[in-house]
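OP here, attaching both records as promised.
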Amino acid sequence: MNRMTSMRMDDMTIALNECRRFVKKEIRDQVLSADSAADQAWAKAIWNKSTALDLPGLLVPEANQGVEASPLYCALLLDVIAGDCAGIASLFAVHFSACLALLKMEAGSRYSVLQGIFQDIEKAAPFISLILPSETEAPALTLSFTNNQPVLAGRSPLAAGAWMADYFLVFPTADESAGEVHCCLVHRKTPGVSIGPTAQLPGLKVNHFAPVVFDQTPIDPDLFLSNSDPGRILFTAAQEGLYGFTAAMAMGTARRALEKAIAYAEARYQFGKTIINHGEIRRILGEMRMKLCVGTAAYTNWFSPPPLPLPHAALEAGLTKAYCTDAALEIILDAIQIHGGYGYLHDYGLEKSMRDAKVLQLLGGSNPRRHIQAVVTGNS
């Protein structure tokens, strides 16, 4: 397998170009029909083909048959994939976020857990779905103990890629605890696990979101990860990783919309000249590019933050996700406006991007405005 540890910029560029070729060959020409059909089988096939580029094991240590690439590289890769299909990218984002949580485990436990998941990664790429607790609703999943055996019960919030998951990384609340979050890894075939109906979301349609039902599901003690590591630490790693990866996907979706808008403006004539030479169109394109550049800087700096001795300079994952997803939707709406009526046609792909961007705002929970309020009031 290709190894991308300690990647130099030149190596990263080469790897991303390889990914672009993969996207062009396997995704670009089929994405609109797959979106219309909400084709999960197509998404699963793409996931399986991605093993040729080692994508499912990017964050996994080399000792566990992985690549041990950086989270920043994963974010850049999601930017590339989301330019053509944010639905496919979101599957990788959820899986990568679960991997980030597992990497926060104590070294000995981490090795044995990852070895159990990824031991045959060259033959079959396991997919880990992520089940985060809702921050606005009462705990949906509870953990109890019967003769020291952890047991999981309840119906989860919507889980990305639930129907194609091999494992679920779950953060339940214990019955006797005061809101303490635990963490456990559950194999799809564990007794008591079933998948609810697919949610009919407007975007990311090839990634089927569905609740997962746990009916007194026994948890393997070796996969009850709170035994050795506080669940809150693993939860924070997963949630913040998902926020950062969602920001990257939003910018990739917006980047493609800007490219389409520029190409259309260069080809479309009005009043004797191409519309890119009209002042108002140039102003709109300039604002779109400004938002894209700032958003890209935001998510890349969050994954690789420079030391800045300034108040309110350190980015938060929630702030980054909020800005990037909001900016992406604005950029895409402007791209549709430049296209006029054509922008709303499915064949141009922009209306799909608009739907995807709207759902990205909700991925991992709605945009966390409380973070913005905390910064404004100086309580961050």
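Record two, same layout:
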Amino acid sequence: MNTKELAQQLTGIEYPVRISRELRAEAESAGLVIVYGGSDDLMEFEGAIHDELSCYGGGTAWVDSRGLVPNFEDIDRDDKDAFRDYFKRVNSCCFILALWCAEEGYSWTYRTDISHDTFEVVDEGTPYCRGIVFALADVAFGGES
């Protein structure tokens, strides 16, 4: 499975998004990450990354080949290993910008330099979110979208 095939399978999924256990496992084994919006304040990650980021009104996720890079404010100031790890990761990560109501007809859209494909989440037949699918292996390269 590649990003295009997964995005095609996800296109038209209803909000709230419920991705089957089988599809999540398939995405994870292929090293693919699914990103979509939840409510008015969450960026959801499924597949090779399973996490969420609070981003009321929009926000930025920093991602590397290990997953979401923690916020600097969340690092234990007394943990020197955590500090070193953070600075190593932040120097090789890519961004995903979550945009709230920035494009007509969508509550959530995303911008990133990571190579990706898109899919549409609908709410009762109306577009709600344009999600993205990317390969975790592409994060280190920050390929053009």
